[in-house]
From TrEMBL, chain A:
Keywords: Hydrolase. Residues 119-334 form the PPM-type phosphatase domain. The keyword Hydrolase applies. Signal peptide: none annotated. One of its GO terms (molecular function) is phosphatase activity. This is Phosphoserine phosphatase. InterPro entries: Bact_Sigma-Reg, KaiA/RbsU_helical_domain_sf, PPM-type-like_dom_sf, PPM-type_phosphatase-like_dom, PSer_Pase_RsbU_N. It comes from the Bacteria.
TrEMBL record, chain B:
Transmembrane segments: none annotated. This is ATP-binding protein. It comes from the Bacteria. Keywords: ATP-binding, Nucleotide-binding. GO terms for molecular function: ATP binding.
Length: 336, 132
């Protein structure tokens, strides 16, 4: 016999017990009963009706006025019942949406996937963790025919799904860029035009574009308003910001991007990041640059991927495992 | 079969429509919970007419289909109509205020529900509750 068929008897029993000796046991039984009735989608108005039927049966001499009052209670409960059912259906919709976003997020991971290139003189590591399901950070590597490696890291101002959709466009334009336009400044100029033409004017993208030449061990770079990276001098054990000036992508279609260069010695490390790294917030406020550098320094002797992973772990811990912004960190370490 | 209807012009007509619906529901043998559901649905439909269309009518009919018995509630008005039906049938829309208060609720309270609306011409809603 299912619950709907036996609920009247069960309810009557609880009511009877309670009327007889007001035990906590009976109250507990009614709590269990209410859980069960929610499980079987019994509406509030049905409960009132059930109550009325039960009490009329148990106490036939109740005053008419009391029974009539239950009619009003039933009527009043109608709207609660409707609100409850609406809530149930909205929950179902919410679950469906969450599932859809999960599918989209995993698709984004596939779409935006990039291979970390392998070359003999450079050890490369990268980590990118979204704050929510969809990431607004993006990084990309290209190995050129002449042996040079392009690296790009971008951050969409704005988060979530719109940012993620925009990322796919950036990735597509980077993939369709000819192999001869490797210069970081040119890359940014091209992308700037794409973004300016195709993206909503309220959406901006910051990007750092770099090119590593293994022939002369020089790193060329340009920035479109992106978080400056760090350069670690192995010889002196010091860090320096990789400053570069340039307008955000999508602001002005005529924007030009200066190119900077830096000689990389064995043991030197280039660190590129999104603002999710530098603007990592703790209870005491923003993370100080010195603190960040101290963490990096602690692990600078490790392999590139290990540096990225360990620094992420430290900052994750520092923020109580709650990322407020997408986190991306790329490490290029000259090994030979 | 006797069909009956109530013209909805002012708020008191909502009460008359409810009363008519309750009488028919009782006559057919609907229990108190279903009576409350049917009258709540009538209330919602009549209120929509009163609030958004200005005037219209609620018609109550007994229906039979094979061995099934039940009642049909029809709401008809010549008001401004509903431009986006999908929207008014969405949960959470009516509660945030605006047109077509509680149509998803009416759909839930009844067993069958259909709606036609032409902007500028009016709205026609038909819903059925079957006796179990």
């Amino acid at each position: 016999m299912n619950f709907r068929d036996r609920m009247l008897d069960e309810y009557k029993e609880i009511l009877k017990t309670y009327i007889h000796d007001q035990t906590e046991q009976a109250l507990y039984m009614s709590q269990k009963f209410s859980r069960k009735s929610i499980e079987y989608k019994i509406s509030p108005e049905e409960m009132i009706s059930l109550h009325k039927t039960s009490i009329m049966d148990l106490e036939p001499d109740l005053p008419e006025s009391l029974l009539l009052s239950l009619d009003i209670l039933l009527e009043v409960m109608m709207s609660y019942g409707l609100a409850y059912r609406e809530h149930q259906s909205l929950r179902t919709i919410q679950r469906e949406l969450i599932n859809e976003i999960e599918v989209a997020a995993s698709m984004q991971q596939t779409l935006l996937g990039t291979q970390i290139p392998r070359i003999s003189s450079l050890d490369i590591g990268a980590i990118s963790v979204p704050a929510k399901q969809m990431s607004g950070d993006y990084y990309h590597f290209v190995s050129h025919e002449n042996g040079a490696i392009s690296v790009a890291i971008a951050d969409i101002i704005g988060k979530g799904i719109p940012a993620a959709l925009c990322m796919s466009m950036i990735k597509y334009s980077m993939d369709s860029m000819p192999d001869d336009s490797q210069n970081p400044g040119d890359v940014l100029e091209r992308l700037n035009r794409v973004v300016e033409q195709n993206v909503d004017p309220t959406m901006f993208i910051t990007m750092f574009s770099g090119l590593y030449h293994p022939d002369n061990h020089t790193f060329y770079y340009s920035s479109a308003g992106h978080e400056p990276g760090f350069f670690y001098h192995a010889e002196t054990g010091t860090f320096e910001e990789l400053q570069a000036k340039g307008l955000l992508l999508g602001v002005d279609k005529k924007a030009k991007y200066n190119e900077y260069e830096r000689k990389v010695e064995v043991g030197d490390v280039i660190l590129l990041m999104s603002d999710g790294v530098t603007e990592c917030r703790t209870e005491e406020g923003f993370l100080e640059v010195d603190t960040l550098i101290a963490y990096i320094k602690k692990y600078i002797h490790l392999s590139a991927q290990d540096i990225a992973d360990k620094v992420y772990k430290e900052l994750e811990y520092l923020q109580d495992f709650q990322l407020r912004d997408d986190f991306t960190l790329i490490i290029l370490k000259r090994t030979a | 079969m006797m069909d009956s209807s109530v013209k909805i012009i002012n708020e008191w007509d909502i009460v008359a429509a409810r009363q008519l619906g309750r009488n028919v529901a009782k006559e057919l043998g609907f229990g108190t919970v279903d009576q409350a559901r049917i009258t709540t649905a009538i209330s919602e439909l009549a209120r929509n007419i009163y609030l958004y269309a200005g005037q219209g009518e609620i018609m109550i009919e007994k229906v039979e289909s094979g061995t099934k018995k039940g009642m049909t509630i029809i709401s008809r008005d010549e008001g401004p109509g509903i431009p986006d039906l999908r929207k008014v049938m969405e949960d959470g829309f009516s509660t945030s205020g605006g047109l077509g208060a509680g149509l998803p609720g009416v759909k839930r309270l009844m067993d069958e529900f259909s709606i036609e609306s032409t902007p500028g011409k009016g709205t026609f809603i038909q819903s059925v509750k079957w006796l179990r």
